[in-house]
Structure formats: structure tokens, C-alpha cells
Amino acid sequence: MQTDTTYKINEIFETLQGEGSFTGQPSIFIRLQGCPVGCSWCDTKHTWNVSIEKEVEPQSIVTKKIENDSWGVFTIEQLKAVFLSEGYQAKHIVITGGEPCMYDLLPLCLEFERSGYSCQVETSGTFEIKVSDKCWVTVSPKVNMKGGYKVLKSALLRANEIKHPVATEQHIDDLKALIDEHKIVNKQIYIQPISQKKRATELAIQSCIDNNWRLSVQMHKYIGIE
Ligand code: SF4
Questions:
Q1: Which of 92, 124, 108, 105 is nearest to 21 (CA)?
Q2: CA-to-CA distance for 18 and 20, rounded, in angstroms?
Q3: What is the pLDDT of residues 48-73, one digit of tens each?
Q4: How far apart are CA 118 and CA 129, in angstroms?
Q5: Which atom of ligand 1 is nearest to the CA of 165?
Q6: Of the candidates 105, 161, 96, which has an alpha carbon nearest to the alpha carbon of residue 128?
Q7: Were 159 and a residue from 58, 139, 217, 220 both cysteine, which residue would form a disulfide, CB within 3.0 to 4.6 Å?
Q8: What DSSP state is assigned to residue 15?
């Protein structure tokens, strides 16, 4: 088992998953540093750059209480030690970012699955997805973003769920075009309002009803948890 792979990590915390199929599931979030996709409405812009001068000791990441662009390098063994020392009870791991698929996540998934955890990755679908077969893949396709990355067909096909952020009709059209272009069928599709604003939420609700999609409302933002 390859466990010497390292990951640049911005944040590790335990909470409830607030989005998609696993809403309400106690989860350990691992937020990886780095994302070149460039979504204008991104709510984790502090994860975009991997600035050398922002590297800190791993323990500073474990105790981090405020969002910032510092990151630390962790091996899988170090992550397991953190889970133990922090007393995390969740058995579901959410690997997010940033764009986690810039990393090879296969060793991480395999090692944690071997230890009794389930894994989920949240990705924009713009990088090849390197995870275990059992890993739950959430693709949140980012279309026509500033970074110029294309959503990969292979990512859409691998997705266990497609979770699409929407604020305007254009976002709905983008999703439909993507599904048509890549002939994506039989996928669980979630529509998620980009903000908690009334208009985005109403648009999301109506598009779910019209297309037999499901609504994801970022539960954590409504109940005030991380
Ligand atoms: S892909 Fe995710 S982390 Fe990257 S810019 Fe878009 S929303 Fe932010």
C-alpha cells in the first residue's frame, strides 16, 4: 500500500455534510490547497494559490479556526494520527478543495477505506479523477470559468452525483448542454442555489420540478455550522 503520498491541506474538520446525497452525514472534511478553475462566485478563494510562503506546520492546520490561505503538508499516516488525536467519530471522509483532483487521491481513498471509512470527493470535473472504485464522486461541473478548463466527459461518467450550482437561467442551460453533449443519462442530478438568495433558490426549485432533478440547499449555511 502506497502511503507516502503527501497532500497540501488547508483545513481538516469534522462536521455534517451539508450538500447532495450525503446531507446530514457526519463527515471529516479534508480541504486541499490549490485550484486554477477561477469561479467568480467561489466561496473558498483562499484555497486557490499554493504560495510557498504560506506553508505552515501541519499542527497549525489542525488547530486552524479561521479561513485563510495557509496550508501544510500531510502524509496519509499523519492524517490518520490527526483523526485519532482530534477524537473524530465520523466514518465518512469528504475530500474537497480547492480542486482535490489535482492530486492523486487513490492512495488516500484505499488506505482510509481499509481502515473502515467511506470516502467522497467533491470536484469541478476539470481534472482526471484518481480515486478508488468505492469512492463517491460528486462532480460540480464548472462551465466557462475564468481559468479556461473544460469539464471532462470522463469525470461526468464517473460521477455518482452531479451537483450543479445555479444563480441564473444560463447556469441551467449550461448544465443541459453539458448533459446533451456528453450523453449523460441515469445520473443523480442536484441543483444548488449559488447563494441563499431568494431568486437563485426559486430558480433552483423550479428547475428541479421541471426536470425531475433534486434540490441541494447547503444545509450547513442554514443551520450555521461549518
Ligand atoms: S472549482 Fe471550486 S474551489 Fe475552484 S474556483 Fe470553482 S468553486 Fe472555487
A1: 92
A2: 7
A3: 999 999 999 999 999 999 999 999 99
A4: 17
A5: 7
A6: 105
A7: 139
A8: E
Q: Which residue in the block uniquely carries the three cell numbers 497540501? A: 8
29-50 confidence digits (pLDDT tens): 999 999 999 999 898 999 999 9
Residues in Cβ contact with 203 at an 8 Å cutoff, skipping those fewer than 6 apart: 166, 167, 168, 169, 172, 193
Decide: 151 in ligand 1 pocket, CB within 6 A.
no
Q: Parallel, antiparallel, or unpaired for β 72-75 and 26-32? A: unpaired
Q: Which amino acid is at 39?
A: C
Any ligand 1 atom below 6 A from CB of 38: yes
Does the beta carbon of 82 sit less than 6 angstroms from any atom of ligand 1? no
Decide whether any atom of ligand 1 lies within 6 Å of the 19 Cβ: no
pLDDT digits 0-9 by tens, 136-184 = 999 999 988 999 999 999 999 999 999 999 999 999 999 999 999 999 9
Query: Helix 169-181 crosses helix 198-211 at what angle (to 10 degrees)?
Result: 30
pLDDT per position as a tens digit, 86-127: 999 999 999 999 999 999 999 999 999 999 999 999 999 999
Between CA 164 and CA 151 the distance in angstroms is 12
